[in-house]
Amino acid sequence: MSKSENVSINFDFEKLYQGIRKETVKILEVSSQEIVDDAKILCPLDANSENVKHTRDTIDFKINNKKQNPVVSSTIKTNSNRGLWLEYGTASSSLRPWSTKPHPFMQPALVKNRAKYIKRFEDLLNDDSFMKDALLK
Q1: DSSP conformation class of 121
Q2: Does pTM surpass 0.85?
Q3: 100 vs 88: CA distance, rounded Å
Q4: How many CB atoms lie within 10 A of CB 52?
Q5: Are 42 and 55 in contact (CB under 8 A)?
Q6: How does pLDDT run across 28-61, given as a tens digit for each residue?
């Protein structure tokens, strides 16, 4: 009879999680900035309107990365009240007999960058260096 050997594999899930989280934040920062840059290019400008210029100038992003929350996300928005009007247009009413046609700029910026954004996450998930780093020796 041969003696059997016990083999154990120890894995540090916290190290794996922190590594992936750190890289996720980097991907969100790069991808969000690309979307913001394109949204600013696509934002309609009227040379006579400071309000529309203000809309373009306030397009920005914020990474939401609180340690106690397992979700990491990015919020891309404009701090201008006119942003929604520009993106989706307005309807006329009895109080306001005119309407504004939509001039989308945020959604097209997201659509333009979506494939790159997804590819970065696919590359991250296919990178086995995180697994190797998390194996305890």
Answers
A1: H
A2: no
A3: 9
A4: 20
A5: no
A6: 999 999 999 999 999 987 655 666 678 889 999 9
